[in-house]
Amino acid sequence: MNYGPSGAYNTPTNNGLSSGSDYYPIYHPHYQPSTKTYSNGSYDSLKINNYNRFDDQEDEPQQEQQQQQQQQQQIENDYNINDPNRPKLLMWGLTKSGKTSVLKLIFEKMAAGETLQLPETKMVQIHELTCGVHIRFQIRDVPGPKTASASDFENYALESTTIVFILDVTEDYTEAINLLISSVQWMYKNGHNVRFEVLIHKVDGVQEQDRLERYSSIQQQVNVMLKECSIREPVINFYLTSIYDHSIHEAFSKIVQNQMRQLRDLENMLDLVTASTQLDKIFVCDIYNKIFLASDTRPVETQLSELCCDVVDVYTDISSIYGTNSSPVLDSMSFCTIELSIGLVLYLKDINPTTALICILKKESKINEALMEVNLNILKKEIQDLFLNNSSRQ
After folding, report:
1. Full-prediction pTM beyond 0.70?
2. Strand boundaries in the chain, DSSP class E
3. Which pLDDT score is estimated for 141?
4. CA angle 199, 201, 204 (to 5 degrees)
5. In this structure, are strands 355-362 and 344-352 parallel, antiparallel, or unpaired?
6. Of 147, 108, 141, which is closest to residue 123 (Cα–Cα)?
């Protein structure tokens, strides 16, 4: 993921890659390949258009490990060169609104209950974070004001590419809205057209039937006040979040995706795979913080996102039991298949040591497994190349 030097990028990519059909790799269409059976019941090595089945590629794990090491070194070099231009997110909002808790929960695996014991933030904390090996960014967690005064905001916000504003919905949020408006005003007055991501937070403390009402009320108040300030079409998004469910991971996934230059190309790749392999849905997910880097463009149901997070939890828990301390959670042969009673099958496969593809398909779907493996293997390579090629253009 790459951010521009002066602000957040919109969803459409501008990375110099062709948007036409000449750029995208060719995925094999759905058909039934033939196999040859020997008298002992074993099968001949299956090869389709020069792509072997994974179980026939004995040298693949070692080759992939070497490739990953080379890619990681290139990423490190590019990251050092482009250090001034890396994304800078600012966590902003009134004191005790939950800014630090969100970061601790997602990126440090702190239990939700433990975040209640965190002390109030008294000084600026700078976090250098990574998602999926390729995506690196900085988040600054700063002391929040007790009132709507934005006097310290200019000291924190000058180099920020995105403002993540946390609003505690369980308290009187009048002061929080005023702080948000004054922050947006200051940014626009000083020519910084950055994106504001508003987390309407702690919704677990609000009755379920009242959540959407408060969401709509806050969004309407903000839009009216911004129009009164002559701020037209601000780049601002709203999310309902809680640290006690998967909503905070979904929201932060959107925050990451909204600034990815590669997002459009990545979505098109996933669309091609779902169409050629007859999958219902496919995600690219960081398994350590459960951030979804992309998915195909079909509508995403909240239940599917929750199932994917659960699959990641199951896989990492099993890996911690049966794996070794020195081995990564994911390697070139990692995969996981889970059948659910609701008629869905979830399939997890590695991209690199921290990132996985999560495919969702119906149990009764007649999908050629060998074809799916071939296409996912092609997709895996193309995703690696997409990020590396984009990095080399910076």
Report:
1. yes
2. 47-48, 51-52, 88-92, 125-131, 135-141, 162-168, 195-201, 236-240, 281-286, 291-295, 335-339, 344-352, 355-362
3. 95
4. 145
5. antiparallel
6. 141
**Residue among 188, 100, 92 at smallest CA distance from 148:** 92
Give the 3-state secondary structure percentages of the chain, helix then strand then coil, rounded to 5: 40, 20, 40
Secondary structure tally for the chain: helices H, strands E? 9, 13
Amino acid at 104: K
Retrieve residue 189's tokens: 């007055």
- Per-residue model confidence as pLDDT tens digits over 73-127: 544 444 444 456 688 999 999 999 999 999 999 999 899 999 999 999 999 999 9
What would the pLDDT profile of 74-87 be if each residue is shown by its tens digit? Answer: 444 444 444 566 88
- Cβ atoms of 265 and 294 within 8 Å: the answer is no
Three-class SS state of 260: coil
Q: Which two tokens stand for residue 127?
A: 């976090």
CA-CA-CA-CA torsion for 106, 107, 112, 113, nearest 10 degrees? -170
Beta-bridged to residue 237, according to DSSP, are 197
**What does the alpha-carbon distance between residue 342 and residue 362 come to, in Å, rounded to a whole number?**
9
Strands 47-48 and 51-52, bridge-based pairing? antiparallel
3-state secondary structure (DSSP) of residue 227: helix
3-state SS assignment for residue 347: strand
62 vs 67: CA distance, rounded Å: 9
Distance, in Å, from the CA atom of 221 to the CA atom of 225, rounded to the nearest integer, reads: 6
The candidate with the shortest Cα–Cα distance to 258, out of 163, 370, 382, is 163
260: Cβ–Cβ under 8 A, 6 or more apart, which residues?
1, 2, 9, 13, 135, 266, 293, 294
Q: What pLDDT was estimated at residue 220? A: 95
Burial of 51 (0-12, 13-18, 19+ CB in 10 A): middle
Residue 146 pLDDT greater than 80, yes or no: yes
Cα angle value 371/373/377 (rounded, 5°): 120
Structure tokens at 62: 């070692």
- The upper half-sphere exposure of residue 150, i.e. CA atoms within 13 Å in the direction of its Cβ, equals 19
Q: Please report, as a single letter, which amino acid is at residue 154.
A: E
